[in-house]
Specification:
The complex is a heterodimer of chains A (113) and B (114). Helix content of chain A is 0%, strand content 46%. Chain A is mostly beta strands and 113 residues long. Chain A starts with 8 loop residues before the first strand and ends with a strand. Chain B has 114 residues and is mainly β. Chain B has strands at residues 3-7, 10-13, 19-26, 32-38, 45-52, 55-58, 65-70, 73-78, 87-94, 104-105, 109-113. Classes of the chains: A mainly beta (113), B mainly beta (114). The interface between A and B is medium-sized, with 23 and 25 residues.
Chain lengths: 113, 114
């Protein structure tokens, strides 16, 4: 699975959009981009994933560049409860094809009032 | 809807004692099951995964073992705990279908070995 690079920490004002970047320059054509977050002392929570098209759900939007070498997770209106560590992961979809979920160090997002 | 239950939530065990963490998934059949560990201040490390009953793959050599006696039950065990086994243990599941094969996590178990 390809490696990802994320800034170690970011701040965001409450009510503003939080834009979390991720670089994955060695991503393969069959690898998806996944985002999870982990609030302290809890299990990671799935947020969103995509292959090449932009995706949106009730939690966030995922913008993937045309060359797929980077992506951005957007939380449109950040709240204090969005304070967490955000993980960007690239992996093959199917586990029997080696699609393991490997977590790096992530970005620690602090939403401030 | 699918749910995952993991217990106990916290435990403190002496060095050399045995360990058993249990995980069950409801609302799905034939899930892929995983055990992860997160040491303090570090990312998650995959310990074991299983694609079916009795089928266990180990990712790292260690003092732990896993078993899957039933389709939706996954157990993490140790015969003799070490201090280095302390950490946050997470059970997770996924279903191989469609695109994505998203993995979902339980709430975790905090293990402190003293």
């Amino acid at each position: 699975d390809a490696k990802t690079t994320q800034p170690p920490s970011m701040d965001c004002a409450e009510g503003r959009a939080a834009n979390l970047p991720c670089n994955h320059s060695t991503i393969s054509g069959n690898e998806y981009v996944y985002w999870y977050r982990q609030i302290h002392s809890q299990g990671p929570q799935y947020i969103i994933h995509g292959l090449k098209n932009n995706e949106t759900n009730e939690m966030a939007s995922l913008i993937i560049t045309e060359d797929r070498k980077s992506s951005t997770l957007i939380l449109p209106h950040a709240t204090l409860r969005d304070t967490a560590v955000y993980y960007c992961i690239v992996r093959v979809a199917f586990y029997n094809q080696g699609g393991k979920l490997i977590f790096g160090q992530g970005t620690e997002l602090s939403v401030k009032p | 809807s699918q749910t995952i239950h993991q217990w106990p939530a916290t435990l403190v065990q002496p060095v050399g004692s045995p360990l058993s963490l249990e995980c069950t998934v409801e609302g799905t059949s034939n899930p892929n099951l995983y055990w992860y560990r997160q040491a303090a201040g570090r990312g998650l490390q995959l310990l074991f995964y299983s694609v079916g009953i009795g089928q266990i793959s180990s990712e790292v050599p260690q003092n732990l073992s896993a078993s899957r006696p039933q389709d939706r039950q996954f157990i993490l065990s140790s015969k003799k705990l070490l201090l280095s086994d302390s950490g946050f243990y997470l059970c997770a599941w996924s279903v191989t279908r469609g695109s994505g094969n998203t993995i979902y996590f339980g709430e975790g178990s905090w293990l402190t070995v003293v």
